[in-house]
Amino acid sequence: PTTSPDLTVEGLTVHYGGVCAVRDLSFSVPGGDAVGVIGANGAGKTSTLKALLGLIPRQVRALRLGGADLRGVNARDMVRHGIGYVPEGRHVFAGLPVEKNLLLGAYARTWNTETRKTLTEVYDLFPVLGEMRGRLAGALSGGQQQMLAIGRALMSKPRLLLLDEPSMGLSPKLVEEILAVLLRLRAEGLTLLLVEQNAKLTFEATSHCLVVENGSVAMTGTSERLRHDPRVRRIYLGL
Ligand code: ATP
Description:
It contains 9 helices and 10 strands.
């Protein structure tokens, strides 16, 4: 039984000065479902996530998570509305131990048995983080840092998780591990919005995708249909 709310986005637009990076983007993510946004470098994927979170100025006609209107919510308060964010490039606190990084992810929660339970769940999902809990985050490999960034976001107990290129810079084996984590989170009922250049990973992790080109939606459909589309295969899967 899913308790995750739907995400609804209508007419999202981002300008940097005179440059339009995201143009009138509309999509929804049903509660408990996973939706992907694929596109080349510079297509507008990161801007889309940052704009949803209110980290950069944007225009948007509708932005709702379940019954909550998020248009007036500032970025700091998004976590209280159940939104977790895994930024591009991980941004872990390199000089702090792994466990401290995770605890910082729970900053909006009161530390109690519930948060302790979440920490146990994160260590269950990523055993390597438990083994390395006392190590400085900066000493972890790229893949381990990515897992830490996901774990840190999960510490806020999000109902919607936004992920910006979690596969970036990772070996194929580690990309498979990230896929397994995403599938597990999805099976647990978490709503996912996954932004990626890696179309193969995204099609496997999601039920629906948007293909974004120059800030606009070029194609949408089920991930199953898109992965067989000749144009997608040529441009995004290199087949
Ligand atoms: P990446 O794979 O590099 O993350 P992306 O698809 O996420 O790419 P964005 O980073 O959202 O793309 O960038 C979309 C467009 O906006 C690009 O043309 C980029 O050059 C431009 N852009 C991004 N950030 C800024 C900024 N701070 N100022 C001006 N232009 C920007």
